[in-house]
Amino acid sequence: LGASQVEPRTLAMLHGLLHQLHVSCTHLVAGARGLPGRVQETAGQVRHGVEDVRASLSRAHTFHELPSLVLAQSRETVARAQLSVDELLEYVGQHAPVPWLVGPFAPALVEYPEDVPVEMAKWEGCVTV
């Protein structure tokens, strides 16, 4: 890569990462429904912070177009978002019921007539109750 290609590729990578982060935050907000209002509000703040950073950085085509204040504010916003996500994970880990974390679960029960031999090799490693 030539020096002239590094900056545009780095900015493109940054835009892609911010897009992925925005999508993840949107899923986070949707997943927080049903949790206490404070938790939903925190998830919403994280998403809005990411949207602000994304909007600030999306217009730049070079790093020289980004004022140092915008970069500093973006860095602070991302750091706050990370702390908020850590708090959310801690709350969910301590308070959320297990079905909320893994979804509804019902093991498939298979019954075989007693006179039909079951090939046990395919059930190796399964736990029977």
TrEMBL record:
GO BP annotations listed: lipid storage; positive regulation of triglyceride storage
Keyword Ribonucleoprotein (UniProt): no
Keywords: Lipid droplet
Gene responsible for this protein: Plin3_4
Highest taxon listed in the record's lineage: Eukaryota
The species this protein was found in: Todus mexicanus
Location of the protein in the cell: Lipid droplet
Gene3D superfamilies: Flagellar protein FliS
Record's protein name: PLIN3 protein
Protein family according to the UniProt entry: Belongs to the perilipin family.
UniProt xrefs under PANTHER family: PERILIPIN (PTHR14024), PERILIPIN-3 (PTHR14024:SF11)
Gene Ontology annotations for the cellular component aspect, listed alphabetically: cytosol; lipid droplet
